[in-house]
Amino acid sequence: MATIDEVIKKSLNPFDNQAAGNFWEEEESPPTVESIHQKPLTQIKSVLAEVAQDHQTRSLILYGDAGTGKTHFLGQLKQQLNDQAFFVYIEPFSESDRIWRHILRHTVDSLVNAPARQADSQLILWLKSSLSTIEKGLKSEQQSLRERIKGIFGQTKTDTGRDAAKQPLRDRQFFIDILKKTIGTTGIYNANEFFGVLYDLTNPDLYSLACEWLKGDDLDEESLKKLRVKQSIDDEDKARGILGNFSKISAKTQPIVLCFDQLDSIARLPDGSLDLQALFNVNSTIYNGRWKNFLIIISIRTENWYNNSKRVHPSDIDRASIRIPLKRITLEEGEALLASRLYPLHNQANPKPTSLIYPLNRQVLEKVFLSRKATPRDFLTLGKQLFQDYKEWVFRDKQLPQPKWFDGGAPPPPPPPPPDKIKAEFQLLWQQEYEKVQGKNTKITLLAAPDLIWMLQQALEALQVQDIKPKLISGKYASYSLSYQQPGKRERVGIVWTEDSNMTSFFNVMNACQKAIQQNLCQTMYLLRAGGVGKPNLAGNQLYQQIFTYTNHRHIKPNLSSVHYLATYHSFVNSVEANELVLAGKTINLQELQTLIRECNLLYKCTLLQDLKIVSKTSGDGDNGNEKHDLQPVKTFMLDLVTNQGFMGVPTLIKETKVHFPLVKESEIQQLIRELCQEQKVEIFDPKAKLQDQLICLVTKKK
Predict the structure, then answer these.
(1) Which of 462, 447, 693, 435 is nearest to 576 (CA)?
(2) For residues 544 and 538, what is the distance between their CA atoms, to the nearest angstrom?
(3) Which parts of 216-268 fold into alpha helices (H)?
(4) 500 in helix, strand or coil?
C-alpha cells in the first residue's frame, strides 16, 4: 500500500463542494457526523413522535445562517426517520396563486419515490399501510373482507374461471365501498373518484396514469375515461381537496412530513419581499381544517426569516410556534466533519496517519476559529484550502517551502480565486447537476407549464434578454406565457408553453393566444409544445392552424434535453438565492452566476434557445444534444477536473471520467489525455512510469 502522502498526491480534494438541492435526489450523500445538529434532530424526532401518537398536525420553523447545512440536515432527517414517516420535498413556488397545485404536484412526485431498502414507492407503502389499518379494524366474522383486501395487492386469488374476468371491476367497487365504510365520506373531497384512483394505483397498467391525475396533470378524455373520472385537478380548490384527502386517510397511518426548503426563491411581493404570507396561509388552512397527521417543516435562512416574517399576519405565525435553530458547530464537531471526509484517503494508506485529520491539524483550526465555533461550510472551506496547499507541496516532492500552518502556524488568507478555476469548478458542478436532472426528469410533462415558463424566463435573464414580462396571455393560463423584446429589434416576442393533453384546455390556450395577437401584445408568437395538437376536426386544432400555419408565428417542439438545460440552470439559481453556491472558496451571487453561464456557453447547447434565436447554433462547443459520440464534452470535463484539482493521479482522472461518461472507452480517454498534453494544457509527470504511478497537472501559463 501507498503512504498517505502518495495517496494525497493522486487523490481528488475530499472537500470539494456540491450545490445544495433537493435532498430526495441525493443518492449518495456526504458522510454524516452524528453529533452535528443532534439537538435539533432530537427535537424534530420528538415532534414527529407526538404527531404519530395523537395524529394532530404540527408546524415548525427550521432556521439557520447560510452554510449551517439546512438542506443536508433535511436529508439526514429523512434517512434516519425513513421507516417512521413519509417524506415530501416541496420546491420553491413561483406563483402564490397556484401554491396548492404546486404543493400537490410535489407531494405526489415525492411519494412516487421508493425509500431506501424498499421495493415499493412511498405512495404504495402509504396505501398498503392504510388498507392494513382498515383490515385490522375489521371484526373476526369479517374474515372474507380481510382476504379481499389482501387480494387487492395480489396476495390472494379468490376467483377463477368465468368470474376472474369481472374481478378487477368487482374489486374496484369493493375497494371504494370499504373505504367509504371505514373512513367515511365526510371531509373527503370527491370521494368516489378519489377512492377509485387510489385503487388504480394497485394496477400496474394504470399506476402512472393515476399518479398523473393525483398530481394535477390536465389529462385528455381518453385517460380520464380509463380512470373513470370526469375531470382533472385543474384549480386550487380541487388541489386543496385532494391534499386534504391524503390527510384524512393518513390519520391512522404514519405521518406525512412536508419539507419546504430554499424559500429564498419563492414568489415575491411587489416590493421585492418574499411572499411568506402565501405559505403561512396554507399552514393556517391546514390547521383550521383540522387536517391530520402532517408535520410541516419550513426551512429558511435566519436573515430572510427576520426580514420577511414581519409581513406575515401574527396569528398565522403563531400556528408555527415551534422554532428550531441550526446553530454553528463546535471545534470538536468540525474536526470530526473533516475526519469523515479524509477517512477514505486514510483507509488507503499504510501506515495509517496518527491524526484523524492529517494533513490538517488541531492547532490550525484553533488559530482560524478563535471562538471555537463555525458553520460546517466554514470548516469544509478551510479544509479544502489547506488540503490543496499540502497536496501541491507533496506533489512538488516537498521542494517548495513547507506550509507554515503544517507546524502550527497560522494559514495565510486565501488568495482571490482565479477566474479559470471558478469556471472549471462551476462546469464540473454543472455536469453533476445536469446528470441529476436527467435522472429525475424523464418526461417533459413531469414539470408543470408554469414551472417550465419560470425556468425559461430565468435562462432568458441570464442571456441578457431585455424587458421580459410574465403572463402575456390572460385568464386561467396566463402563467403559461411570457413576452420579451426581440434582440436588436423593436418587436415583442410572445411565448406560450403548454403540454396539457386535454384538448379543451388546448383550445382555451389557443383562444387566449389569438386574443393576445389581435391586441398586438406581441408581433411574433411562439408555441412551445412537444405533444400533439389534436385531430383536425377539433376546434383547438383549427384555431392552432389559423395562428401557426403560413404566418410569422411558429410552433416549436422542445426536446427533453432542452428542458434538462433549463432545469439545471434553475437549480443553480435556487442555490444562489439561498446563498449556498460556493466556487473556489467564493460565495457566488446571481449576477456572477449569470456571467458564468454566459462565459461558459452552457446554455448555448440548448436547442430550444437556438430555435428561439436567443443563441446561435454555431456557438459553444457544438454539442446540441444530438451527437451520438462527441468526445469534446469529455475532453472539456477532463481539463476542468485537472484545472480544479491542480494535481492528481492519471488513474483517478480516468476513473472520474468514466463515472460521468460511462459509454466512453478507456482507450478514448487516454487518447484525450495525450491530446491535452500535445496542446500543452496538461503535463504528465514521469510518463514512462506504470499507469497507476503516473501523475498529471495543469500547465501554468507564463505571463
Answers:
(1) 462
(2) 10
(3) 221-227, 236-250
(4) coil
